[in-house]
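Data availability (excerpt). The following record was deposited with the supplementary files.
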Amino acid sequence: METEVTENNKTAEGEKQSEVSESTAGAEQKQNAEQKPEQKAGQESANAADQKRIEELCEKLFDTETRLYLLLAGVAKEKLSEGAELARGICKAGKTPEESAREIAEAYPHLRSVRREVPKFSASGSGDGDGFAAIRSIFAKR
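Predicted structure:
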C-alpha cells in the first residue's frame, strides 16, 4: 500500500513540474508576441553590439595565443608584432597558431632572439691560483 502511495506522489509531482514548465514557456511566448517593435529593435541592436564585442575578444585571444606560440618558438620580444602579422597570414591559409609560429621561427631567422653566452667566473677559495700567491709564499718563509 505504501509503495502505491509513493508512486502516485511521484507521478503527481512530475505532472506539476511539466505543467509549470509549459506555463512558463507559454508566458515567454506571449511576452515575445506582445513586445513593441521598438523593444525588438533595441534587442537586435544590443545583440549586434554583443556580437561585435565577441568578435573583438576572439581577435584579441587569437593574437595573444599567436604571440605566446611565437615566444615559445624563440622569436624575440621586440619582433613579436612582425611575427604576429606573418602568423595571421599563415593561419588564414588553414594552419593553427602553433604550426604557423613554428614555421615563422624556422623561415625567418632574423626574428629569433640572439642567445648570448654569459661568461662564468670562478674564484678559488684558498688563494693559490691568484697572482699574489707567490708573493705571499715569499713573505711566509721569513
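Summary of structural features: The CA atoms of residues 62 and 97 lie 8 Å apart.
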